[in-house]
Amino acid sequence: MSATTTGVRATARILARPDGRGATALPVLAGEGPLAPRRTRGSADEARVMLVGAMSGPLGGDHFTVEAGVEDGARLHLGSAAATLALPGQAKGEARYDVRLTVADGGELHWLPEQLIAAYGSELRVHTRADLGPTARLVLREEQVLGRAGEEPGRLTSRLSVRIAGRTVLDQELSCGPGAPGGWDGPAGLGGHRAVGQLVVVRPEFAERPVPARVLGEGAAVMPLAGPAALVTVVARDALRLRRLLDEALASFA
Question: What is the average pLDDT across 52-74?
């Protein structure tokens, strides 16, 4: 970790690998400053890791990075212990939060962090990138909440990119809050809602049996992607309803 006049730089690194006995080992489990990965109790063949926030942030000027890799035959469940709260800081400029996920053929990753909250006055840019082998499996959930209870939102720009076997199947960006392009809160955008989320599910069997497009309820829809994957998009009035709709969507894939 490094701290400069432009903010804090910190990286967490996780690598999951088969241990040769039917379970998953974690030969790399390292973090800096505000990013502290901790192994928790998993299942017989799945390793579980929680990111524990050791400091507040990200603040203005900070740059956090999470790098997680899953090798062939390994299974990793990666989450966070609490919501991430983006706040204004003394350093000028936006904060950045990069998530880089790599899953090899035969690997499986569940990336299920808690909500990201853009507090008033904050400016945060998030980019989540997932690079998967042809037969990799992935469950990826992102939840963004604009402002804490009773406050105006901060500025949030969120980009989500997914590649399977070197082919881009999803690359989308959402910008909202003060200074975002006009219309972000209109009928074609969030429509007055203050919570938005995405769920990406990648399974090899979707190549033969694509997920049909459908409406899951008010503010929630599922769309097949150009590959063995599906995208669920949800807008909701608050974080509780957002989580409920995303959980229901994930259960519908079972």
Answer: 88
